Amino acid sequence: MKNIRDILKEANKGKSIVLTFGRFQPPTTGHEKLIKKVVDVARKNNADHLIFPSRSNDPKRNPLSPKDKVRIMRQLFKFANIADEADAKTPFHAMKILSDRGYKNVFLVVGSDRVKELDKQIRPYIKHSDPKKSFEFDTFQVVSAGERDPDATDVTGMSGSKMRALAAEGDFDSFMLGVPGQQKRTAKSLYNALRKGMGVRESSLEDDWDQLCLLEQKQSEKVTVVALTKSQQDLSDTLGKVDKVCSKMGVPFYAIHTEKAHFSNEDLAVNEIVVHNYDGNGKRITLDAHNTVCLVRGGSLINQAGLGLARVFEESGAFMVNNLESMEFCHNKFATSLAFDINKIPTPRTALVTNEDAIEPAHKQIGSQFPVIIKTITGAEGIGVSIVESPASLKSVLQSLWKLDGEVIMQEYMEIKHDVRTLILDGKILASVKRKKGTGGKDFRTNYALGNTVEPYDLSEEEKKFVIKLAKVSGAYFCGVDHITVNGKHYALEVNGSPGSGAEPYRGYMDKFEGKDLSSMNMIQQMLEYITNKENWRYPTTEIGVVENITVDGTSYKARIDTGNSTYNSIHAHNISVKGKSVSFEMNGKKKTMPVIEILTINVGAGVEEQRPVVEFDVSFGVKQFKKIKFSLADRGENNYPVLVGKEFLTRTKHSVNVARTFTLFESNLDERFSRQMAQIPT
């Protein structure tokens, strides 16, 4: 018999999905194996997946309410897409939903005893003459999930009926053995929901359960810390301290050498990452992605190997400190300078210098004064930073950097005696330190890595608000924010996404070290204690305005952001004509014919409904590109904006809306600012 992977490889072209449909009354360890298989096969074969829980609800066989069932399944199976469609009452309803969404290759995974029955019942409706009943599939297969031995004495034999019986009898210890992950807090929530649905009266002792099992829950979700690095110095310095603190805390820690480690697609199972040769000595580690913190050190991202490893961890669901988007933002000094400008944060005037013809316009842009600061866009620890006193020196310094393929910015010089480095953790100030100007005033740079002196620094209330705002702009979860104060005014210098730890002692701002001197070891311990507590994990969104630029199918539009619109995005088109499975229309002066993904019924007001075809476009939004995003076609000629962006897209792309702002997305502003600057360069 062919397995699912063989079938998928032979499937016709088109949208593919692997799914299962079940009562899950309640979800058990057997279901976990089924769901992991569905998700794993779908991912390895570039197919979508969905887990459909039935909507049945009665005290005897289906005591879990649909709402409780979906909620608990999403806790137990965080790696899977759990459907909550109210109209998916049977496998037939699920098939119709998938057909209407445009899926062509559908693989239904069920228990071995139901394969023939469901295939016989569903197949007659494929390409049915009645469009209301038809499933428009090119490939359909009911696949066996394998046999389960009901007489088995271990958890593989745990059935829903056994679990319900144990819940009714009050045998929680035995019940928990059949719950995926055996996490007491979630198991107790499921146990209580079942007993409530069956009408079993609860003991008053249950009220304090969450507090009683909280410690046990944390122990069952033990976190592992990994760090991506290519720097031997980092291994002996900051990551050496991380290693010592993790050992003290009893937290597993692995430093992954990005130039030596590797992985293969075959190793990427659901919720699991296997990294080979992680230490350069042939060792391999297997990680539970959803219980892994990944520290991304800046040097690890300078080549494709490091970027690839970081992306695997991020897309597998590890908690990233920091994610790739914020790390790339922090790494680019020109990008951060523009973002500060866009967000009206004072910063030294900065210009990109790309060639000799750009020198004079760039110098004029930053004030036409000497000295000036020259920086490579991606330098760190003061390396690649120069002070230039004259026009002759300016040209020679730039030529030297260009010869080494350096990307260079020019920045106005501000006379200072020190700058301030503040460490921000999850939007909170962890520590702050004053970094004094070079010894004897001979070096204008303040970096501690260059041997300069430091001392703890007490931030004013105004400075606290200022540095927290800088960190928020970067999107980084943990970062070092640098600022200076000139004539009483605060200026942002940069945000470092992988700050070092040598500039001690710091002034502490959190917990028991608030207002006290803080060593680098204590600072790292505070940071690690915080990020290894899963209650503190945040998967950040990018804040955008109520109006933004969006590029759809290669054309830029102004878009209205509407969080009240829960359906797909909408785009202006006219002369819309649907014929069979395709739609012809005019958009942006061009005639197009595209496949119809589905037809939406939209209530346009006063009880009037409108049928709108849905098509797919590639989209650029901010700094990211997205493939095959669904848009409904509508005549928006009387609307102010040709594109409406809805909640479904915002949730998928991790954006939140600030209704008081407009045009905040970095890429559109960067293009405009860059074009203005390039226009000043003689050709």
Q: What features would you describe in this structure?
A:
The chain is an alpha/beta fold. The protein has five domains: 4-216, Rossmann fold (3-Layer(aba) Sandwich), CATH 3.40.50; 224-321, Rossmann fold (3-Layer(aba) Sandwich), CATH 3.40.50; 349-412, ATP-grasp fold, A domain (Dna Ligase, domain 1, 2-Layer Sandwich), CATH 3.30.1490.20; 418-536, ATP-grasp fold, B domain (D-amino Acid Aminotransferase, Chain A, domain 1, 2-Layer Sandwich), CATH 3.30.470; 542-670, Acid Proteases (Cathepsin D, subunit A, domain 1), CATH 2.40.70. 30% of the residues lie in helices and 29% in strands. The chain has 20 helices and 33 strands. Strand 23 and strand 24 (555-562) form a beta hairpin. Helix 11 crosses helix 18 and helix 14 (333-342) packs across helix 20 (666-679).
